[in-house]
Amino acid sequence: MTVVVVADAAGAFAENKDVARNLRRELLVPALAGGETVTIDFGGVELATQSFIHALVSDVIRSMGPNVVDSIAFRNCNDAIRGLIEIVVEYSQEGLQDEE
Questions:
Q1: What are phi and psi of 4, to 5 degrees?
Q2: Does the pLDDT at position 88 exceed 60?
């Protein structure tokens, strides 16, 4: 299992899309492609932007399929971050269910 600690890369305010993209490319994609589960830990992150969450997970869902979400756990999310994750996951999966 791979654990991605967002605060280590992004700090308390996760807003930089380049940081999210790097986490996705360097940690999420290789782990998921290798059949691992991934925990994305938001401990220490007080705020995140929707664009950060989008850059972190949307391409993974669209390229690997909607079921990849079953291999990703989101931990230590406050209510605002959890809400953004739900929005991004939902719209990233739109239309993909029909393609399977």
A1: -105, 115
A2: yes
